[in-house]
Design a protein that fits this description.
Elements (H helix, E strand, L loop, with lengths): L4 H18 L4 E5 L5 E6 L7 H15 L3 H7 L23 E6 L2 E9 L3 H13 L3
Antiparallel strand pairs: 1-2, 1-4, 3-4
């Protein structure tokens, strides 16, 4: 099982709606079960520097089957995953905005959002992920 393009588009649309609601343009990426990009959108006015970050948040969330917000908590100095951000060729993002997408309890992809504060990224990612279910 993996995320289809149609499902990825639905996830992105929900993320765009939430980003518009909070007034913050975002980059929203969806990765498949292998952590590969399925779809991405850069909303008008969203930072170009966040394109890569959103894609890598989706990758990270799928690679470790965890929300990047939660991974961040465990990757601080002294934490069990301290230093993980330098693994996987530097693709691992350890701040909020990446959320796994689950089907029947199995992670089949992930969404990554970047362009606002951590709280904004997380809110948009959660709204986007809710559209998958």
């Amino acid at each position: 099982m993996s995320v289809t393009l149609a499902q990825a588009r639905r996830v992105i649309e929900a993320g765009e709606a939430k980003a518009a609601e909070i007034g913050q343009p975002m980059n929203i990426a969806v990765a498949d079960a292998g952590g590969n990009l399925v779809a991405h959108v850069r909303m008008d006015g969203a930072w170009i520097g966040s394109i890569d970050v959103s894609i890598n948040k989706a990758y990270t969330s799928r690679a470790f089957d965890i929300a990047t917000k939660d991974l961040a908590e465990h990757s601080q100095s002294g934490g069990q995953f301290f230093g993980i951000h330098v693994s996987n060729g530097g693709r691992v993002m350890v701040f909020a905005g990446g959320v796994p997408l689950r089907r029947d309890g199995v992670v089949v992809g992930a969404v990554g959002v970047s362009g606002g504060t951590g709280e904004q990224d997380q809110a948009v990612a959660e709204a986007a992920a809710a559209a998958f279910g």
